[in-house]
C-alpha cells in the first residue's frame, strides 16, 4: 500500500515540469558560486599566509597554507546556496496540493492521512537526495575546474562532503514541506523562506556578531549551511568548538564565512540542530494536517 | 473490516465551525440499489455532511459510516467509495490522463483504468489536455472519472450537475441510474435544486439549517402532497360552516377574502356550496408541486426561524398572490414520511 502511495507521489512530481525546472537554478547556483569561490579560495592560501590573524590561526592549528584543501570551501558555498532549491521544492509538496486542491483527492485515495503524509515524506526524502546529489556533482565539477588539483579535497573529504550535501538537502526539503504546511500558502512560504535564509538571518548573525557568535550556530540557515560548511571548516580546524581562544571574533567571522558557515559549531552539531528545526516545522505541519478539516 | 453492504449511515452527526452550527444532529441511511438525493438550500450543511462522511472533516459529534466503518478504516477507501466534490482540484498543468494515473497508482489499479474511465465519462479525446484548460463541465467529468477509478461500490456526488449542459445532465442521470440499479450500488447525490435531480433520484433526504426535514422515498413525498382549492364565495363564513358540516376540516380564510380548502376537490366543494345555497364566483385549483414542497421544507432557512430550533414545516411555500405563508397551515406533518418512521423536524426528536 505504501508502495502505491509512493508511486503516486513520484507520478505527481514527474507529470509536471517543476522538478526539472528547479534543477536549472540549482545547477547554475551550485556551479557558478562554487566556481567563483574556487577562484577566490585558490588565493585563500595566500590570504592565510599574509593576514596576521589568519597566520596566527594556521600556526596554532598546524596547517600548512600551501596545502590546504580550499576546494572544500568553494564546494560548501555552492551547495549551501543551492540547497535552497530543494527547500522550495519541499514547500510545493503540501502547500502546493492545498493550492491546487488536489489534497482532497490525495487524502481520499489513501487509507488514512498518516499513510498519505508518510508516503509524501519518504518520496521527498528521495527527491531531496536527488537534488543534493546533483548539487554535489555540479559543485564538484566547478571545484575541479577552478581550484588547483593539489588543493582538492581528499577522498575522505569528498565522501564526507557528498554525505553532508545529501543530508543537508534532504533536511532542507523536509523543512520546506513543514514550512509550507505550517503557513499553508505557497507564495507566502516561498517569500518568507527566501527572505529569511538569504537576508534576515545573515544580517542578524553579522549585526549581532559583536554581542554573540552563537546565532549562526543555532539558527536554521546557519545550521543548514553548517553541515557542509562545518565539514569544510573542520578541514581547517576553525569550528567554534575547536577554535583557539585567542583568535579574535572578527577573524573568526571571516574564516567561518569563507566556509559559508559563520558561527558554525561543527558539522554534526549543525546537522542535529537543523534536524531539530526541521522536526519543529515538519511536526507542526504534520500535526496540522492530521486533524485539519478539508473544506 | 467493512461489511460490504454498500450502506451509508449518518447518525446524530453534528459539526460546529466556531460559533456556526453547520450540521445539527443529522441522521439518515442510504441503501444500495437506489439513487438518493441529498437536498437542501445552499449553506444547509450538505457539503459539510458529505465531507464528514468522507473523512475530510472531523465531526463534532456523531458519526458517519460507509459499510459500517468510518472512511479512515475502509482499508483502500477509493475501492469502496468514489466521490465528486465541489472544490476538488486538479493541478492546472497536469493532463487529464496523468491526473488519473497518479491516483490509479495510489489506489493500486492498473494504468489502463485511467483510459477506461476517461472513455466512460466521454473525455477520451481530451486525455492529453491539461486540466487547467478544461471547462467546468469537463472538470466535472474528470472528477467523476477520478471517482470511478477504483470501481467503487458507493458513489457520493456533491452538486454534480453544476456546470453540466442539459445533454451532460441527461447523460449523468442515465449513468448514475444504471450504476445504482443494474449494479446494486449506492449513489448519493446532493443538490440545492430538486428539479435538477428529481428525475434521477428514488430516495430523498432533505435538510435545512443543518437539520433533516424529510427522509424517505420521493414517491411518498409526492403522494403526501395535498392540493388545495381556493374558493371565492359570496359568503365565506357560511361556506366554511357548510364545508365543516360536510366533514371538510382543513379550511382557512385568506386575506383577500377567499377560502382555502385542502383535502377536497372542486366538484365536492361546488356541490356543497350549491346545496348550501352559497354563490361561488370562482374556484382555483392550487397544486403544490414537489418543488414547492421542497421550498416549504427548507424555508426556515430564509424566514429566519430561531437558530437551533427550526420551526415545524409549514405550508408556506411560494404562495399565490394574496396568500402570505402563515395563512395556510398544513397542520402537523402526517402521511407516509411519519408512518415510515422517517425523520421529520428538528432536534426535538
Report on this structure.
The complex is a heterodimer of chains A (295) and B (349). With 295 residues, chain A is mainly α. With 349 residues, chain B is an alpha/beta fold. Chain B is built from twelve helices and 13 strands. In chain B, the strands form three sheets. In chain B, strands 5-6-7-3-8-9 form a six-stranded mixed β-sheet. In chain B, helix 2 packs across helix 3. The two termini of chain B are 32 Å apart.
Annotation keywords:
A: 295 residues; mainly alpha; 14 helices; 78% helix; elongated; B: 349 residues; alpha/beta; six-stranded mixed beta sheet; disordered C terminus
Strand residue content of chain B: 15-25%
Lateral strand order in the biggest sheet of chain B = 5-6-7-3-8-9
Number of helices, counting only DSSP H or I runs of 4 residues or more of chain B: 12
**Would you report the number of β strands of chain B?**
13
- Any idea what the shape of chain B is? elongated
CA gyration radius of chain B, whole angstroms? 24 Å
Number of helices of chain A: 14
Radius of gyration of chain A: 20 Å
What helical percentage do the residues of chain B reach? Answer: 25-40%
- SS class of chain B: alpha/beta
Strand content of chain A: under 5%
Output the helix-strand order of chain A: HHHHHHHHHHHHHH
Report helical residue fraction of chain A. over 70%
Q: What's a quick, concise take on this entry?
A:
Chain A has 295 residues and is mostly helical.
Strand-helix topology:
The complex is a heterodimer of chains A (295) and B (349).
Chain A: H1 2-14, H2 18-42, H3 44-50, H4 52-60, H5 71-82, H6 84-100, H7 103-108, H8 113-146, H9 155-183, H10 186-207, H11 215-218, H12 220-236, H13 249-258, H14 267-291
Helix pairs in contact in A: 1-8, 2-5, 2-6, 2-8, 3-4, 5-8, 5-9, 5-12, 6-8, 6-9, 6-10, 8-9, 9-10, 9-12, 9-14, 12-14
Chain B: E1 8-17, E2 20-30, E3 35-39, H1 46-53, E4 61-66, E5 81-84, H2 96-107, H3 112-120, H4 136-148, E6 154-158, H5 166-181, E7 186-191, H6 194-197, E8 203-208, E9 211-217, H7 218-223, E10 228-233, H8 236-245, E11 251-253, E12 259-262, H9 266-276, E13 280-286, H10 290-297, H11 300-303, H12 336-339
Parallel strand pairs in B: 3-7, 3-8, 5-6, 6-7
Antiparallel strand pairs in B: 1-2, 1-4, 8-9, 10-12, 10-13, 11-12
Helix pairs in contact in B: 2-3, 3-4, 8-9
Amino acid at each position: 500500500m505504501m508502495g502505491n502511495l509512493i508511486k503516486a507521489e513520484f507520478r505527481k512530481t514527474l507529470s509536471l515540469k517543476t522538478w526539472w525546472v528547479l534543477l536549472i537554478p540549482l545547477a547554475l547556483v551550485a556551479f557558478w558560486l562554487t566556481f567563483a569561490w574556487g577562484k577566490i579560495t585558490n588565493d585563500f592560501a595566500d590570504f592565510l599566509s599574509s593576514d596576521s590573524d589568519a597566520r596566527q590561526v594556521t600556526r596554532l592549528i598546524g596547517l600548512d597554507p600551501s596545502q590546504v584543501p580550499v576546494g572544500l570551501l568553494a564546494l560548501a558555498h555552492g551547495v549551501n546556496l543551492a540547497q535552497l532549491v530543494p527547500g522550495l521544492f519541499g514547500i510545493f509538496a503540501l502547500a502546493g496540493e492545498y493550492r491546487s486542491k488536489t489534497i482532497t483527492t490525495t487524502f481520499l485515495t489513501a487509507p488514512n492521512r498518516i499513510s498519505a503524509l508518510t508516503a509524501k515524506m519518504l518520496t521527498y526524502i528521495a527527491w531531496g537526495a536527488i537534488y543534493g546529489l546533483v548539487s554535489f556533482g555540479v559543485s564538484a565539477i566547478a571545484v575541479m575546474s577552478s581550484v588547483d588539483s593539489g588543493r582538492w579535497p581528499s577522498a575522505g573529504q569528498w565522501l564526507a562532503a557528498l554525505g553532508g550535501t545529501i543530508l543537508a538537502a534532504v533536511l532542507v526539503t523536509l523543512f520546506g514541506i513543514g514550512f509550507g504546511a505550517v503557513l499553508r500558502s505557497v507564495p507566502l512560504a516561498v517569500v518568507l523562506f527566501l527572505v529569511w535564509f538569504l537576508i534576515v538571518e545573515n544580517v542578524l548573525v553579522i549585526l549581532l556578531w559583536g554581542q554573540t557568535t552563537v546565532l549562526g550556530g543555532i539558527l536554521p540557515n546557519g545550521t543548514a549551511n553548517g553541515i557542509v560548511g562545518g565539514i569544510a571548516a573542520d578541514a581547517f580546524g576553525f569550528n567554534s568548538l575547536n577554535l583557539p581562544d585567542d583568535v579574535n571574533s572578527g577573524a573568526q567571522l571571516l574564516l567561518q564565512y569563507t566556509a559559508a558557515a559563520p558561527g558554525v559549531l561543527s558539522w554534526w552539531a549543525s546537522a542535529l540542530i537543523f534536524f531539530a528545526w526541521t522536526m519543529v516545522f515538519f511536526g507542526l505541519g504534520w500535526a496540522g494536517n492530521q486533524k485539519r478539516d478539508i473544506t | 473490516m467493512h461489511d460490504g453492504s454498500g450502506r451509508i449511515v449518518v447518525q446524530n452527526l453534528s459539526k460546529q465551525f466556531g460559533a456556526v452550527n453547520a450540521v445539527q444532529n443529522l441522521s439518515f441511511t442510504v441503501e444500495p440499489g437506489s439513487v438518493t438525493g441529498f437536498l437542501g438550500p445552499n449553506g444547509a450543511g450538505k457539503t459539510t455532511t458529505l465531507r464528514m462522511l468522507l473523512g475530510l472533516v472531523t465531526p463534532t459529534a456523531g458519526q458517519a459510516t460507509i459499510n459500517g466503518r468510518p472512511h479512515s478504516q475502509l482499508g483502500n477507501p477509493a475501492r469502496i467509495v468514489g466521490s465528486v466534490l465541489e472544490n476538488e482540484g486538479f493541478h492546472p498543468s497536469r493532463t487529464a490522463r496523468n491526473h488519473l494515473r497518479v491516483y490509479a497508482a495510489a489506489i493500486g489499479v492498473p494504468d489502463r483504468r485511467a483510459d477506461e474511465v476517461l472513455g466512460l465519462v466521454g473525455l477520451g479525446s481530451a486525455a492529453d489536455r491539461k486540466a487547467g484548460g478544461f471547462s467546468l463541465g469537463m472538470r466535472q467529468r474528470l472528477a467523476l472519472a477520478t471517482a470511478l477509478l477504483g470501481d467503487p461500490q458507493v458513489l457520493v456526488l456533491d452538486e454534480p450537475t453544476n456546470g453540466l449542459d442539459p445533454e451532460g445532465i441527461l447523460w449523468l442521470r442515465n449513468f448514475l441510474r444504471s450504476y445504482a440499479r443494474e449494479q446494486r450500488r449506492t449513489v448519493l447525490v446532493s443538490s440545492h435544486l430538486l428539479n435538477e435531480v428529481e428525475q434521477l433520484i428514488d430516495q430523498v433526504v432533505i435538510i435545512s439549517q443543518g437539520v433533516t426535514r424529510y427522509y424517505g422515498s420521493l414517491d411518498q413525498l409526492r403522494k403526501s402532497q395535498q392540493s388545495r382549492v381556493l374558493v371565492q364565495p359570496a359568503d365565506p363564513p357560511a361556506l366554511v360552516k357548510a364545508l365543516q358540516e360536510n366533514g371538510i376540516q382543513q379550511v382557512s380564510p385568506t386575506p383577500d377574502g377567499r377560502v382555502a380548502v385542502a383535502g377536497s376537490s372542486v366538484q365536492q366543494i361546488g356541490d356543497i356550496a350549491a346545496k348550501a345555497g352559497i354563490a361561488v364566483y370562482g374556484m382555483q385549483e392550487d397544486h403544490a408541486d414537489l418543488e414547492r414542497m421542497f421550498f416549504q421544507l427548507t424555508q426556515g432557512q430564509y424566514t429566519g426561524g430561531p437558530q437551533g430550533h427550526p420551526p415545524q414545516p409549514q405550508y408556506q411555500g411560494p404562495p399565490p398572490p394574496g396568500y402570505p405563508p402563515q395563512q395556510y397551515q398544513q397542520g402537523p406533518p402526517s402521511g407516509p414520511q411519519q408512518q415510515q418512521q422517517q425523520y421529520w423536524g428538528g432536534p426535538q426528536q
